[in-house]
Amino acid sequence: MTWSEMQPLLRDACLDTLFMVWWSTVYSVIGGLPLGLLLVLTDRGALLQNVVVNKVIGVVVNLGRSLPFIILLVWLIPFSRLIVGTSIGPSAAVVALAVGAIPFFARLVETAVREVDKGLVEAVQSMGGGTWTVVLKVLLPQALPSLIAGLTTTVIALIGYSAMAGAVGGGGLGNLAIAYGFQRHETGLMNITIVLLIVIVTVVQLAGDLAVRRLARRGGAQSSAVGLRRLWAPSVKPAAPAPTPDPATTEAAALTKTR
């Protein structure tokens, strides 16, 4: 097969892969972010403590993560046909990709949110902050670097899943590699497909790492500024023996004012 024959096939396959990964990522965030937050908020001693709801969500998430994707892909063929009217093609694959990625991302969200300082949450609550204030002003902003890192991991997993979807007619680079590279013994096309997948994964990983570093640097700069103000305050008013303010309380006060 010549390059002129490969080019349109590769272009269409790349577009199909990007289509599948983009929309499955969007649906994964829409479904996985609330589930991950609920796993934290409904836990024992949390803001919305509800052991029954927490256990049910945990079981659903664990079941979704326990199924191998290729089995889930085949099992969801009737559901995909019901949702999008077909069981083959990129649109049908998006359904299975989203269902498989939502519980995966939900666990990453749970892990990221649990890393937030509980003292800051308690300080915001003591100042009258409600559940929405804690979530929108504390949990999500503080966990944002970890959430971006988790999203990057999810996107890379979806790229691999989208290649598996080609085994059942899902389209994309995976389907191209199987239909032409394997079944028609087009080794050159197979190699190019592999290189393209590696390039896409590398670009996503680099972009995610860059975003995480910038967010972490911004958070570190803000913490340093708070620390400098705290160190400077005693030298300005040496005769006022005031107790050292709790960093969590100071930041919580600033957050509640912006409600």
Overall mean confidence score, pLDDT: 83
Order of helices and strands: HHHHHHHHHH
How many beta-strand runs? 0
- Strand-pairing-aware structural class: mainly alpha
Please tell me what the overall shape is: elongated
> What's the helical proportion of residues?
over 70%
Please, how many helices?
A: 10
Stretches with pLDDT under 50, minimum 5 residues: 223-240
Distance between the termini: 62 Å
Radius of gyration: 24 Å
Largest sheet: number of strands, sense, barrel closure: none
Strand content: under 5%
Q: Can you put this structure into words, describing what you see?
A:
- With 259 residues, the chain is an all-alpha fold.
- The chain has ten helices and no strands.
- Helix 1 packs across helix 8.
Helix/strand layout:
Blueprint: H1 3-41, H2 51-66, H3 69-75, H4 77-84, H5 90-114, H6 118-126, H7 131-165, H8 172-182, H9 187-236, H10 247-257
Helix pairs in contact: 1-2, 1-5, 1-7, 1-8, 2-5, 4-5, 5-7, 6-7, 6-10, 7-8, 7-9, 8-9
Short description:
This protein has 259 residues and is an all-alpha fold.
Keywords:
10 helices, 259 residues, mainly alpha
